[in-house]
Write a structure and sequence with these properties.
229 residues, globular, 50% helix, alpha/beta, 5 strands
């Protein structure tokens, strides 16, 4: 029995299917690693970060059934974040996650707790752990979307200044979108990097002495890369 040659139209359909399959496989290779963002706070930081993360997970929803990036607000102090992650892993709840980001503020916690959280997290070799702290609070990162800020006056003034640009609330569900709409994301990154670098260049290495400084830009840049991949 001889096989009839396929029609050109059939060949084009097969070719299109193969290209679609190849494109899907390539996209799978670019999926973000399973990442858990653990926040000290249970309101402001998770609300802001989930606005960001939801866009990333939505981008890959057609090729994966699971969200690859998650946000978890703990309500724990800085010193307890790493222990919390270790406990979750030990109980087989978070074993699939390949990277952990710790998001926390200086606030009124003891200096050693604030400093040692970074030093321990970045020295871990058993898991990949990074930090995105703010000294004094995450509102500094939000404020940098609108202006440069170099004074050591703390959270109260951050919030006071933020309210000049929009009606700021710590529980504002559209916080991510509002900052993106009214402020300048690129300016926030530039200003945050500048302040952090100036401290390092001056030999100021302890997080508790780097003020006003936020490392939120590092986490945000990583998340941003998943939207651009």
């Amino acid at each position: 029995m001889s096989l009839k040659p396929k029609k050109k139209s059939d060949l084009k359909k097969i070719e299109a299917k193969m290209k679609a399959k190849e494109s899907k496989m390539n996209t799978r290779a670019l999926l973000p690693p399973y990442t858990m963002i653990i926040s000290e706070g249970i309101k402001t930081e998770p609300i802001y970060l989930r606005g960001f993360v939801s866009r990333i997970n939505a981008r890959y929803k057609d090729i994966t059934k699971e969200n690859h990036i998650s946000v978890y607000g703990t309500g724990r102090n800085t010193n307890g974040l790493i222990r919390f992650v270790d406990k979750k892993i030990a109980h087989n709840e978070w074993k699939k996650y390949q990277k952990f980001w710790l998001v926390y503020d200086k606030d009124d916690f003891p200096l050693d707790n604030f400093d040692n959280t970074q030093f321990e997290a970045e020295s871990r070799t058993d898991i990949s752990m990074a930090v995105a702290w703010s000294n004094e609070s995450v509102e500094l990162w939000f404020l940098l979307h609108f202006q440069e800020y170099i004074s050591d006056n703390g959270r109260a003034q951050y919030i006071e200044l933020l309210n000049k640009y929009f009606d700021y609330s710590k529980t504002q569900e559209d916080l991510y979108d509002k900052l993106l709409e009214l402020g300048s994301y690129e300016a926030a990154k530039r200003r945050a990097k500048k302040a952090y670098k100036e401290c390092l260049d001056a030999g100021i290495n302890a997080p508790s002495t780097m003020v006003p400084v936020t490392r939120m830009f590092e986490l945000v840049e990583e998340l941003e890369s998943y939207l651009e991949a």
